[in-house]
């Protein structure tokens, strides 16, 4: 009965969401009214079981079942209602903000852990779904390890649809999923429920930004930092200043920015934002291929030993690291090298961009700059420096910040398709197509399985191959000469 569920919800909120016991009767009466009831549950509930709840999923299911069976809601509306209930039970945004910054004064990790735990306990970050993602490490005899995940909650997106965001004029409310006006938004068929979301304001380069956790959770404590205004992404010196402002305040985290162009950027280009979290990205474990330059102020600039083209700037002078990052950015944006298929500008259309990732360890600032280019041609209409067509069955989406740094987020469909491919490999010829018609694009994988490779080994090689596609200067003598030519324009 819903009265018992309401009573359990109130106890859960006291134990996990910081509900003040003085507010318990008020909250219970409000929830009873919400569900069309007047009299509270009288009896005992298993408080130990509630105390041991790591996530609210069992209570969410009870709300959804009541809404569907008694109130006649469809599943989508019932889920929105459940989200509203947990938003109502959660601390108000001002209280979250107060507690967050109170904890940050003592320990930046404690503040982040508080917001993360709250996002789990109120159901915004759906931990049980994220925990079902497949995750493994791809190791190679030579070269850096990669991290591969099959994300079961992330929708697969199309590069052409993402590109339209740059010119789209939105009259919707909220304008996008990153706008501050999502706070407490009930949701509808076009926009997800955000009643339970909580984010905190942060100041970056003198501007008001916000930090929240991602509902998809690509990696440990995956967070998103977004500007208060709905303005398009734009990479400039201030980008690096903002990133360093963040890691100055939260040195336990890295923070990075996608490039500001389609194909080589993120999936939300119309709202300025960053992504970060605990330092788990494979690029952080990569070595240095060579030292390219050392400044008088002690900033060292390295070519990193990774699959795509990246430079690492490292030094104790934040300003000097930022100055050199700006020089590299300004040299790269208009840079042309037709021998390497690099054209920075075609008329007013820009093709060069950078992906940037900042860290602070002790007193040392590190900034990774990955050189990107989003040109297309007749051979590669989806991008010259994008995943090439032979890899589309595994990954066709743009290679943004996370993948470019070595952590691949692959579509949920692969969980099924890799199993189907293993079955198909046991069948003669292409007879498997009658049973598994969507295996028509997986011929290379099936051939690899028939020659003794595992599905995971094949996916590992594909992900490495995609990053090699992404490299604007290939790991070849010609590619190294091309990078040298570019670096001479900087130093």
Task: Please explain how this structure is put together.
By secondary structure, this protein is α+β, with helices and mostly antiparallel strands. Helix content is 36%, strand content 18%. The protein has 16 helices and 17 strands. The protein has helices at 2-16, 24-34, 47-51, 57-69, 75-89, 93-104, 108-121, 127-131, 159-164, 237-249, 318-332, 401-404, 413-424, 443-450, 455-470, 477-488, and strands at 134-138, 146-150, 200-204, 207-213, 223-227, 254-257, 273-277, 288-294, 300-304, 310-315, 336-337, 342-343, 345-346, 349-350, 352-361, 364-373, 407-410. It has a ten-stranded antiparallel beta sheet. Strands 1-2-17 form a three-stranded mixed beta sheet. β3 (200-204) and β4 (207-213) form a beta hairpin. The longest helix has 16 residues, at 455-470. The radius of gyration is 25 Å and the shape is globular.
Molecular shape:
globular
Number of strands: 17
Strand order of the largest sheet: 3-4-5-7-6-15-16-10-9-8
Residue-averaged pLDDT: 95
CATH class of the largest domain: Alpha Beta
Distance between the termini: 72 Å
Estimated radius of gyration: 25 Å
Counted up, domains total: 2
Q: Which fold does the CATH topology of the largest domain refer to?
A: HIT family, subunit A
């Amino acid at each position: 009965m819903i009265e018992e569920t309401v009573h359990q919800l109130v106890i859960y909120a006291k134990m996990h969401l910081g509900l003040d016991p003085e507010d318990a009767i008020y909250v219970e009466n409000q929830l009873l009214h919400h569900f069309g009831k007047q009299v509270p549950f009288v009896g005992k509930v298993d408080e130990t079981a509630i105390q041991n709840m790591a996530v609210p999923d069992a209570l969410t299911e009870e709300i959804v079942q009541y809404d569907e069976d008694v109130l006649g809601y469809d599943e989508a509306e019932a889920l929105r209602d459940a989200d509203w209930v947990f938003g109502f039970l959660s601390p108000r945004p001002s209280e979250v903000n107060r507690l967050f910054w109170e904890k940050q004064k003592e320990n930046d990790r404690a503040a982040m852990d508080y917001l993360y735990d709250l996002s789990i306990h109120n159901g915004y970050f759906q931990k049980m779904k994220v925990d079902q993602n497949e995750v493994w490490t791809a190791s190679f005899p030579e070269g850096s390890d990669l991290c591969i995940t099959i994300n079961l909650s992330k929708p697969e997106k199309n590069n052409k649809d993402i590109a339209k965001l740059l010119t789209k004029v939105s009259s919707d409310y909220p304008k996008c999923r990153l706008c501050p006006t999502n706070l407490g938004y009930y949701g509808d068929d076009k926009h997800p429920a955000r009643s339970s979301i909580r984010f905190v304001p942060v100041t970056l380069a003198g501007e008001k930004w916000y930090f929240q956790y991602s509902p998809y959770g690509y990696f440990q404590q995956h967070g998103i930092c977004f500007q208060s205004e709905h303005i398009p992404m734009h990479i400039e010196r201030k980008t690096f200043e903002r990133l360093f402002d963040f890691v100055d305040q939260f040195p336990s985290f890295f923070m990075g920015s996608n490039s500001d162009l389609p194909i080589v950027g993120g999936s939300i280009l119309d709202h300025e934002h960053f992504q970060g979290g605990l330092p788990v990205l494979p690029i952080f474990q990569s070595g240095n291929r060579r030292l390219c330059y050392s400044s008088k102020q002690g900033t060292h600039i390295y070519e990193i030993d990774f699959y795509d083209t990246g430079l690492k700037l490292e030094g104790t002078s934040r300003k000097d690291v930022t100055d050199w990052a700006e020089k590299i950015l300004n040299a790269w944006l208009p840079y042309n090298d037709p021998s390497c298929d690099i054209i920075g500008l075609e008329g007013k259309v820009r093709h060069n961009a950078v992906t940037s990732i900042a860290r602070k360890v002790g007193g040392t600032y590190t900034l990774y700059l990955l050189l990107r280019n989003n040109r297309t041609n007749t051979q590669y209409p989806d991008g010259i420096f994008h995943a090439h067509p032979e890899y589309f069955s595994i990954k066709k989406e743009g290679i943004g910040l996370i993948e470019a740094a070595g952590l691949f987020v692959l579509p949920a469909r692969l969980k099924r398709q890799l199993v189907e491919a293993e079955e198909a490999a046991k069948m003669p010829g292409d007879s498997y197509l009658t049973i598994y018609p969507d295996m028509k694009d997986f011929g290379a994988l099936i051939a690899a399985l028939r020659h003794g490779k595992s599905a995971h080994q094949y996916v590992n090689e594909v992900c490495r191959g995609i990053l090699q596609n992404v490299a604007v200067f290939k790991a070849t003598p010609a590619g190294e000469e091309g990078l040298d030519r570019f670096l001479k324009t900087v130093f």
